[in-house]
Each structure stands twice: as C-alpha cells, then as structure tokens.
C-alpha cells in the first residue's frame, strides 16, 4: 500500500464516519425532539385535565355553599307557611273536634297572600331545581284555592287539602334539610 492509498483510505473512512455520525446525530436529534414533543403534549394534557378537575371542584364547592346559604332563609319561609296552614287548618277543622294545639302559637304570617309570597320566594330563589319545582306546585295549589273567587267568597281549604298541603310542606322542608339532593 502506498501513502496515497493509505491517505485515501483514511480520508474515505473519515468521510464515511462523518456521514454516519451526521446521520446518527440527525436521527438522535429528531428522536429527542419527538420525545420532548410527546412529553410536552403529555404535560399539556395533564394540565388541561387538572384544570378541568379544579373547575369541577370549584363548581361543587360553590353549589354546596349556595345550598347551605339558602337553607336558613328557605326554612324560615317554609316554616312560616306551614305554621299558617296549621293554624288555618285548626281554625277551620280541628275546633269541631275540640282540639286545640297548646304548643302552637299564631304564625308569623297572617294571610294566604303572605304564604304565597313565602312560597314564591323559595320557588324563585332556591338553588335546587327539585325544591323550586315542589314549592311552585304547592304555590299553584294554594293560589288556585285562595285567589280564585267562587261566587262571592274566597275558597277555604277542605280537610283533605289542608292535610295534603301540610304533608307536602313537611316533605319540602325535609328536602331543604337534606343537602345531598341533586338536580
């Protein structure tokens, strides 16, 4: 082998080695970029998932706060309505049986219009749809009875209506007490 052949062989293998190194480096760079892109995509997906979970938790907390906040004023309204219904029921039906509830005082509200106002307050403002729906149902029944004039007299509750309305109001009060209900 001559010096020129050795030199050519050395240069040739160096060029080949350089080309191979260059190709391998390019391939390695592409693989690293893909790895970084995949990691960034995974990280972005995790961040989106975490953000979505945080928003859902914030919605749950706000809903629980809304329900807890509504509990006090809605119970006050519903108890006042129930107290008026019980007092009216006793005045109209229980006195015939010589029954007077010693533990019952006159309610804080004094007319059917006041009861309707309290029920409407709950039906419009309460954050739970089921509570609003039931309050509207009782409201509609009482409105039909007390705001519709039959002849020249405003209607009075029958014994069955009074018992049914008191039962529905008690169920509604229980529903407001239980915070686990869902829409």
TrEMBL record:
UniProt KW keywords: Membrane, Transmembrane, Transmembrane helix
Membrane-spanning ranges: 6-24
Keyword Membrane: yes
Protein name: Uncharacterized protein
Phylogenetic classification of the source organism: Bacteria, Bacillati, Actinomycetota, Actinomycetes, Geodermatophilales
């Amino acid at each position: 082998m001559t010096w020129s052949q050795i030199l050519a062989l050395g240069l040739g293998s160096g060029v080949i080695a350089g080309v191979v190194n260059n190709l391998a480096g390019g391939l390695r760079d592409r693989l690293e970029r893909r790895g970084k892109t995949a990691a960034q995509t995974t990280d972005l997906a995790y961040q989106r998932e975490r953000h979505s979970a945080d928003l859902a938790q914030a919605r749950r907390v706000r809903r629980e706060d809304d329900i807890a906040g509504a509990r006090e004023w809605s119970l006050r309204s519903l108890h006042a309505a129930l107290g008026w219904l019980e007092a009216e029921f006793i005045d109209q039906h229980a006195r015939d049986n010589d029954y007077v509830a010693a533990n019952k005082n006159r309610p804080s509200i004094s007319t059917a219009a006041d009861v309707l106002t309290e029920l409407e307050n709950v039906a419009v403002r309460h954050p739970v749809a089921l509570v609003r729906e039931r309050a509207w149902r009782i409201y509609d029944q009482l409105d039909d009875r007390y705001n519709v004039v039959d002849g020249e007299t405003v209607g009075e509750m029958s014994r069955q209506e009074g018992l049914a309305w008191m039962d529905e109001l008690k169920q509604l009060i229980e529903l407001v007490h239980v915070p686990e209900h869902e829409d």
